[in-house]
UniProtKB/TrEMBL annotation:
EC number: 1.1.1.95
Domain D-isomer specific 2-hydroxyacid dehydrogenase NAD-binding stretches: 105-280
Pathway of action: Amino-acid biosynthesis; L-serine biosynthesis; L-serine from 3-phospho-D-glycerate: step 1/3
Family matches, as InterPro entries: ACT-like_dom_sf (IPR045865), ACT_dom (IPR002912), ASB_dom_sf (IPR029009), D-2-hydroxyacid_DH (IPR050857), D-isomer_2_OHA_DH_cat_dom (IPR006139), D-isomer_DH_CS1 (IPR029752), D-isomer_DH_NAD-bd (IPR006140), NAD(P)-bd_dom_sf (IPR036291)
GO function term, MF aspect, one: NAD binding
Enzymatic class: oxidoreductase
Superkingdom, natural source: Archaea
Name of this chain's protein: D-3-phosphoglycerate dehydrogenase
Keyword flag Transit peptide: no
All copies of domain D-3-phosphoglycerate dehydrogenase ASB, residue ranges: 324-440
Catalytic activity: (2R)-3-phosphoglycerate + NAD(+) = 3-phosphooxypyruvate + NADH + H(+)
Length: 528
């Protein structure tokens, strides 16, 4: 195969590929037309964070079978476009975790003790001993935003240096937080208010983009910010202002919204903001790990073998696909609805199959349900990596089957729980191709899962549905469809509304303020 490498990787990876008989070409820092020319005859492409792998790149590379990301974050790769072009995308999720964690710890100390600033002064001939009075991490509280592989390792290290750990990560279990002695809190604001330092370790997703702005930074009053995850999660001008105005004592950043960081960035003008040029993964060990793991995956793909860290789903074999194909999206949708209605720290996901579907090999369907469950928290999730994500997050997955299926030919139920509270969403396919949600918890309904949905639990009292319609109508939000289900007259009812657009938060609050309404939840299913 011709393997094109467009960001520098360790020689060990290049050598491994060459020894396996592949033709390796390096073309660092190519972009635009030069990149399109370079990929034209490539069978494999290896990148780090420096190359934007867009739809245009895939369109220009008809022979490409795999993109290997020698590192973790794949926000620079258009995975949907890769899937459309039948190209596998695989990353190296383990090899640089320690390096990233150590850099985060180093940056916390560097900002707390003004090491780069003091270094600069001394190198320019000034013994500015009296000007630097730092902060100890001992007995302080560290807020870890995103408690995945890197976040956990940072917590372990700084916890060992005397810090109390508090974490905000809506998608991990209580058990996982307990295992690291971290206090798991339910909202970001709480995490910030309790912390002296915060360190960011989430991926960049639509949900995390700009999640920390002026208001959030104010809650960390007098504290420090470390970001070695991705630029774009913290609002950069707001951070520059907060440090400049003394709201924060300092910030240490390894990643930026635009990389390389432009000369005119406001971050560069503030003395107490220290910066490194995306060096989190830049250690010898990490680079060797990710380069060899990426090389192994390219070699596997070339040999037609399974690719260990593939991020986009390979196709199912035809016979299985015929049987379970119609249920993949349904399981994904039921998972998405269940997790959004649940809204807590799940520790368990149960997928139950009833009727004809229970006779089939449902492993891939369960994986699709997990994909739905993790979709709001992880852009890179797919049916291939979802079971591993469940393991990483300490979430138990159980699958059960029964032959009987009430009134339907086949039913899939996804239940998300934290061991005490749970939400169950049950769906079927009408006529094999019309998905319907037929039960939410104990409420029988018949909702079309699509786009923007509002799920309202309310007391079954006259005028309630009219009230909901009026509130939405006054906000100019069109109701495309609705279904109301109730268990007993005057008891609790549940209604599902398909809306043409997302309702603003104040509309949801207005509905929730009414005494007849128990809870309103907005559920986003996207355009799929
Ligand atoms: N500076 C550098 O050179 C490096 C940066 N990274 C970056 O570090 C980040 C974390 O990497 P890993 O720990 O391996 O990822 P991971 O996938 O193991 O963990 C990410 C965690 O973020 C959580 N999360 C997702 N959405 C969230 C939200 N809205 N609020 C709070 N938590 C949320 C997830 O539940 C998960 O636990 C990635 O962005 C990665 O690209 C990783 C390695 C090197
Ligand atoms: O692995 C990651 O997510 C990183 O951010 C490391 O990026 P790099 O490979 O150094 O460009």
């Amino acid at each position: 195969m011709k393997v094109l490498v467009t960001d520098p990787i360790a020689d060990a990876g290049l050598t491994r590929l060459r020894e396996a008989g592949h033709d390796v070409e390096t073309a660092y820092e190519v972009e635009g037309d030069a990149l399109l020319d370079a990929v034209a005859d490539a069978n494999a492409l290896i990148v780090r964070s420096g190359t934007e792998v867009t739809e245009e790149v895939f369109a220009a590379a008809p022979d490409l079978i795999i993109v290997g990301r020698a590192g973790i974050g794949v926000d620079n790769i258009d995975i949907d476009a890769a899937t459309d072009h039948g190209v596998i995308v695989a990353n190296a999720p383990e090899g640089n975790v320690r390096a990233a964690a150590e850099h985060s710890v180093a940056m916390a100390f560097a900002t707390a003790r003004s090491i780069p600033q003091a270094h600069d002064r001394l190198k320019s001939g000034e013994w500015a001993k009296g000007e630097f009075l730092g902060t100890e991490v001992n007995n302080k509280t560290l807020g870890v935003v995103g408690f995945g592989r890197v976040g956990q390792q940072v917590a372990k290290r700084l916890g060992g240096l005397g810090m109390d750990i508090v974490t905000f990560d809506p998608y991990i279990s209580q058990e996982r937080a307990d295992q690291f002695g971290a206090e798991l809190v339910d909202d970001l604001e709480d995490c910030l208010a309790k912390s002296d330092f915060i360190t960011i370790h989430t991926p960049l997703t639509p949900e995390t983009e700009n999640m920390i702005g002026e208001d959030e930074l104010a809650l960390l009053d007098g504290g420090y910010v470390v970001n070695c995850a991705r630029g774009g999660i913290i609002d950069e001008p707001a951070l520059a202002e907060a440090v400049e105005d003394g709201v924060l004592k300092g910030a240490a950043l390894d990643v930026f919204g635009e990389e390389p960081l432009p000369d005119d960035s406001p971050l560069l003008d503030v003395d107490d903001i220290i910066v490194t040029p995306h060096l989190g993964a830049s250690t010898e060990a990490a680079q060797e790990n990710v380069a060899t793991s990426t090389a192994d995956q390219i070699i596997a793909a070339a040999n037609g073998q399974p690719v260990a860290n593939a991020l986009n789903a390979p196709s199912l074999d035809e016979a299985t696909f015929k049987q379970v194909g119609p249920y993949l999206d349904l399981a994904d949708t039921a998972g998405r609805i269940a997790v959004q209605l649940f809204g807590g720290h799940m520790s368990e996901v149960q997928v139950t199959y009833a009727g004809d579907i229970a006779e089939e090999d449902v492993e891939y369907v369960t994986a699709s349900a997990l994909k739905g469950v993790f979709a709001p928290s992880d852009l890179q999730v797919n049916a291939v990596n979802a079971p591993q994500i469940a393991k990483d997050r300490g979430i138990d997955v159980t699958e059960s089957k029964t032959r009987t299926s009430e009134d339907y030919q086949s039913l899939i139920t996804v239940t998300v729980s934290d061991g005490e509270e749970s939400v169950s969403v049950c769906g079927t396919q009408f006529g094999g191709e019309e998905p319907r949600i037929v039960r939410i918890d104990d409420h029988r309904i018949e909702a079309v899962p699509h786009g923007h949905m509002l799920v309202v639990r309310n007391r079954d009292e006259p005028g309630t549905i009219g009230f909901i319609g009026t509130v939405l109508g006054e906000a100019d939000i069109n109701i495309a469809g609705m279904f109301n289900g109730r268990e007993t007259i005057g008891g609790e009812a549940l209604s599902v509304y398909n809306l043409d657009e997302q309702p603003p938060q104040d509309i949801i609050e207005r509905l929730n303020d009414d005494s007849r309404i128990i809870e309103t939840t907005y559920v986003e299913l996207g355009d799929e």
